[in-house]
Write a structure and sequence with these properties.
Structural class: alpha+beta
Number of strands: 23
Strand content: 15-25%
Largest sheet: 7 strands, mixed
Radius of gyration: 24 Å
Number of helices: 16
Length: 587
């Protein structure tokens, strides 16, 4: 279990005064993703000497963007005078819900030359969502705004309003009102459940079972069972933890109501992630004294005498090995990499490390399609709810204001990037009848393109055209597709029932070892950038506590807890401890 969660706080920007006169010591941060960079940021602001060891040749982990090799026309800045930049690729698109509160605080503390003076100012609202349907059914388009933001997006005014109404009518005809009422009733049960019931009861119940999907229509199953879990949590509804899924829906509901949030419900960056966020972050961390060692893979944490005495690392380019040492160590690697470096003696020292072997990961990675024509499908994200591979997508050029795509990237022919996340690699597709993990790279590309067209084209719509497709790209972390042993180096933690019990806290039983990453127990309880950031703050606080530091602790913000429901939560705790169901639970 995680250490106690701190009280909610505002998101006011602040900097930590670097202590003077005493060197608090050195810290080795293992991993340069969001968790590792957050830990380095917080520690450097408190005067620690920090070195980040990163396996790749760039920072950001799964959040980074990258240039597509061989697609640029020079080494210039993309201004038209010195050549174009490579086409922007990425592991998968990023989005920043308004209920994120820890990560936005960090973004506000990264300087950037814009009106806000920080990277946080690079966030732009994505005020719409499109649910794409197969079989020529009308797509469902709706605004994604807090209730305090009443103006309707221009794209929902006459012209697309008819499409929106048709999609709403189609959904209403296929989704019985009684089933909608039942689903809302199940949400009410979770909203009014105490935390003890959520952890001890709903964590053990699959989402599919909790919402009684077996007894409902196919539309109910597809939209509210399969769609929510595969597209947002990347795990099958039949096994997904109710606590995790409902917690995410609950956060979106409070965000919609404008309660305890940092901003609008859906936000994206105004440029490729590394341009708008990761590179400025690296520059700022270097200014704070943080050092980086790239191409350095962690092999083993050396444990002796009850402490970590060093870390064996090797160069990814030369295979040369060595041991690095520091006063404290924060393991900020993905769980599949972190646990590989824990030897038997270290595991014996802290049983929660052994339990991490039960945590499960799955493939979730994106494909970018580069189009010759600007193709803003919707001013936000598209959920391809009927796609067997659980696709979600976003047209990116519309959000990158102030830059002309053709003159900035590639060979001058590309006008847009349609970035697509694939959440279900284990399901047969519509083109080849095989799961993605059994396809060649080109078959994956063709299959994803076919599923996109199946949802966006049809019924007189011609949104995507084959002739418009210029090229495509997939993160090189995926390799061996089409062969006997396909692999994915940067998988995502998934949340089947019982996952919470195996997630470790940031504090370990080893006094100079701390854990950060999206697999560590956090309040958000979801493998996200927010979870990675929160876990790093907890790791730094645990380090400061262990070291007896007088430096201010990192502020850890929780998801919103509405005080209006406090009485019902207390009542439910009494009922749960008495063996009674939730007051609103009618099964």
């Amino acid at each position: 279990m995680a250490e106690p969660m701190s009280a909610p706080a505002t998101t006011t920007t602040r900097s930590i005064a670097v202590p003077k006169g005493r060197d608090p010591g050195s810290v080795a941060v293992l991993g340069g993703g969001v968790a590792g960079l957050t830990a380095a940021h917080e520690l450097a602001e408190r005067g620690y000497r920090v070195t980040v060891y990163e396996r790749n040749d760039a920072l950001g982990g799964k959040a980074r963007s990258m240039g597509v090799p061989g697609t640029g026309t020079g080494t210039g800045t993309g201004t038209g005078t010195g050549g174009r930049l490579p086409l922007p690729g990425e592991h998968g698109f990023r989005f920043f819900p308004g209920f994120y509160r820890n990560l936005p605080d960090t973004l506000r503390r990264i300087p950037y030359p814009n009106k806000s003076g920080s990277v946080h100012g690079n966030l732009v609202n994505a005020p719409e969502c499109l649910v794409a349907r197969f079989g020529g059914r009308p797509n469902l388009r709706f605004p994604v705004r807090t209730l305090l933001s009443l103006p309707v997006p221009a794209s929902l005014l006459p012209g697309t309003l008819v499409e929106s109404l048709m999609g709403l009518l189609d959904t209403s005809l296929n989704l019985p009102p009684t089933e909608v009422a039942h689903f809302l009733g199940r949400l009410l049960v979770h909203l009014t459940s105490c935390e003890l019931r959520r952890i001890e009861q709903w964590e053990r119940v699959p989402w599919w079972t909790f919402i009684n999907a077996d007894a409902m229509s196919r539309e109910y199953q597809q939209l509210l069972g399969v769609g929510i879990t595969r597209d947002l949590v990347a795990v099958r509804a039949e096994v997904a933890s109710t606590r995790t899924v409902a917690r995410l829906i609950q956060a979106f509901i409070y965000n919609l109501l404008g309660r305890g949030n940092d901003g609008e419900i859906d936000r994206v960056l105004n440029a490729p992630t590394s341009e708008a966020w990761i590179t400025p972050w690296e520059v700022h961390l270097r200014s704070l004294g943080v050092e980086f060692e790239f191409g350095t893979a962690v092999e083993e944490l050396v444990y002796a005498g009850g402490r970590i005495t060093g870390v064996r690392v090797r160069s990814t380019s030369t295979a040369a090995g060595r041991t690095v040492a520091a006063g404290h160590y924060i393991s900020a690697m993905p769980v599949q990499d972190a646990r590989a470096g824990w030897g038997a003696d270290l595991r014996a020292a802290d049983p929660q490390l052994e339990r991490c072997d039960r945590l499960r990961t799955a493939w979730m990675v994106g494909v970018q399609f580069y189009l010759r024509t600007r193709t803003p499908l919707v001013h936000g994200h598209v959920i391809h709810v009927d796609s067997p591979w659980a696709l979600t997508s976003v047209s990116q050029a519309q959000f990158w204001k102030g830059r002309d795509f053709r003159s900035t990237y590639g060979d001058g022919e590309v006008a847009d990037c349609l970035s697509v996340d694939i959440s279900a690699w284990d399901r047969p597709g519509i083109l080849y009848g095989r799961p993605g993990i059994k396809c060649t790279p080109d078959e994956v590309r063709r299959e994803v393109w076919a599923q996109l067209k199946a949802g966006l084209n049809g019924a007189g719509r011609q949104v995507l055209a084959d002739a418009d497709l210029h090229s495509w790209f997939m993160d090189p972390a995926v390799s061996g597709l089409g062969g006997p042993a396909p692999s994915h180096r940067e998988q995502l933690l998934i949340h089947p029932v019982g996952t919470w019990y195996d997630r470790p806290s940031s504090r370990t039983a080893v006094p100079n070892l701390f854990l950060a990453g999206d697999y560590v127990a956090t309040d958000i309880d979801l493998a996200t950038m927010e979870g990675a950031n929160e876990s790093a703050r907890r790791a730094v606080n645990a380090l400061l506590d262990t070291a007896g530091s007088t430096a201010p602790r990192c502020r850890v913000r929780r998801l919103h807890r509405p005080p209006e429901l406090a009485f019902l939560h207390k009542l439910d705790e009494i009922r749960y401890r008495s063996g009674l169901p939730n007051l609103f639970d009618r099964g």
